[in-house]
TrEMBL record, chain A:
GO molecular function, one term: GTP binding
One Pfam family cited in the UniProt record for this chain: Septin
Organism: Calypte anna (Anna's hummingbird)
Xref: CDD domains: CDC_Septin
Record keywords: GTP-binding, Nucleotide-binding
Keyword GTP-binding annotated: yes
InterPro entries: G_SEPTIN_dom, P-loop_NTPase, Septin, Small_GTP-bd
Occurrences of domain Septin-type G (ranges): 22-253
Protein name: Septin-12
TrEMBL record, chain B:
Organism: Calypte anna (Anna's hummingbird)
Domain Septin-type G: 36-302
UniProt keyword Secreted, yes or no: no
Keywords, comma-separated and alphabetical: GTP-binding, Nucleotide-binding
Family classification: Belongs to the TRAFAC class TrmE-Era-EngA-EngB-Septin-like GTPase superfamily. Septin GTPase family.
Annotated Basic and acidic residues bias: 358-386
Protein name, entry field: Septin-11
PROSITE patterns according to UniProt: G_SEPTIN
Presence of keyword Nucleotide-binding: yes
Amino acid sequence: QLFGYVGIEAVLEQMKIKTMKMGFEFNIMVVGQSGLGKSTMVNTLFKSKVSPKSSQPGQEGRIPQTVQLQSITHVIEEKGVKMKLTVTDTPGFGDQINNENCWDPIIKYINEQYERYLREEILIARKRKIPDTRVHGCVYFVPPTGHWLRPLDLEFMRRLSKIVNVVPVIAKADTLTLEERAEFKQRIQEDLKTHAISVYPQEDFDQDPDDRALNDRIREKIPFAVVGADQEHQVNGKRVLGRKTKWGIIEGE
Amino acid sequence: PVKTLLQNDDLRNLSLSGHVGFDSLPDQLVNKSTSQGFCFNILCVGETGIGKSTLMDTLFNTKFESEPATHNEPGVRLKARSYELQESNVRLKLTIVDTVGFGDQINKDESYKPIVEYIDAQFEAYLQEELKIKRSLFNYHDTRIHACLYFIAPTGHSLKSLDLVTMKKLDSKVNIIPIIAKADTIAKNELHKFKSKIMSELVSNGVQIYQFPTDEETVAEINATMSVHLPFAVVGSTEEVKIGNKMAKARQYPWGVVQVENENHCDFVKLREMLIRVNMEDLREQTHSRHYELYRRCKLEEMGFKDTDPDSKPFSLQETYEAKRNEFLGELQKKEDEMRQMFVMRVKEKEAELKEAEKDLHEKFDHLKRTHQEEKKKVEDKKKELEEELNNFQKKKAAAQLLQSQAQQAGSQQTKKDKDKKK
């Protein structure tokens, strides 16, 4: 019970300034078969050429024999907030004829980052700011079959949702009509529930009723049906990002 | 095989072609903290009666209930009290630690010890939580001291030796902010001389007091100007006096009124600005990243952990843990074996004893049996004798009866003969 203004709330501003000065690190991983539009999606999300697209001529278009992980790091800044963004791509995932254990290199990579952080943390003379290479989110691209999740999808998501935040998305959603999309989402949600796969935002981590309400609304929409678009077009006099097809322009946003 | 290619080791700056939205990241972080609440812990070191409690009341515009301490405490003890304050949407968990009895004893050699022990204990508690396997640091109630307000008595001359010794012991463990208490007893010209004397004494004795940060443009200027006025000469008061047409916190004397929030009268406003409104977060951060890290380093080195082994190859805490753990387990095993051996020996001994006892028992039993049999034989012999005697007796009796009956017959025949004769 305060009888007058003290000024405690200034600590919020102090904190904000400090975090802005330190900058943020954000590491995401994109997983999915080749050709699902992962690189395009990342470029759309961050509105810049983050990932090189493998469909471009001149790039090594050959699918690797085993799953390889490629990380690209960029620094992006917006309104004074600096972010070190690392995108890890997984070419070769799910592309083989025999895809058994194709998730192993990914799990190993994620655990290696955790190990690296732990090593830094338990040093005696440790750094003031430990470099964070841990994967904060893993975006899993589900091909738009319209039916159910495939065994590969289920296996992967089941294993990975235990160690990392998995965000499933329906790739190239412009191949589904709205009704097909709704049905597909419904089936996927049921599938996830049946197999007890908890994707982000996980229900166990809801902190308070407000948080839960917000997260419930998000959970209703999972998996997000996305369309990656990084080319600009004119629609009604406005410039939008979208995909131009013979039957119309799909606006990314 | 996994190949991790890190393209672009020198980070490239990308330009964005539109609004992405991650500029809300600082807000997200701040929102998370507001929902969890902030912890802030202040330690007040100063003699009894110097005005610590009053100053806290004045600083936080509230009445923390506490009764004034007596002067006859046998030693220094620390009293911590926690309060929850709320201002707009910020929840502050404030803990005020008081040094009760500081400066009251005749022998003050050990006065600083309880204070150092308390500060170390809070660091230790945090370290223990951090070292746990299953830990919950994100909702850990941080009790580490973020700021130490050292109350200097307004003598007007210089620092007392107790002050120097105590501050020297505390400067590597906590952020020290020295303040001159009850500053309304010092005249303006004396105050200036007093302040410079104190600062020069601190410097010449190598006492590290808290430096207000000047690396951030937004606060550099204000911090630099405020630093000049250290140590802050403060006056605390929770009573209000009417000044002009407003009520203000002040102390009323017969010769005038000392207004707490008047910067001409004292530095209270500066202290409040520095402590709460400008540098609260920095104080928390310094405590965590400097003082706590130092404590942690010393403690772990003391326990025998190292970052590099004699060949200066970096080895992890994990390996040391493993080694120590194996050592410990080995010792445990050895002890277990020893105990087992002892147990086996004892069992053997007991067994032997019991065997002996059993043998004894058997012998006794045999002896008893023999004795019994002897007795039985004796009795039987006696029985035989007795039977023979009885037989003999019966024979004798029979013979005697026969004689008797013969004698009677003979007698009766005689009487009959006599009768016949008489006829």
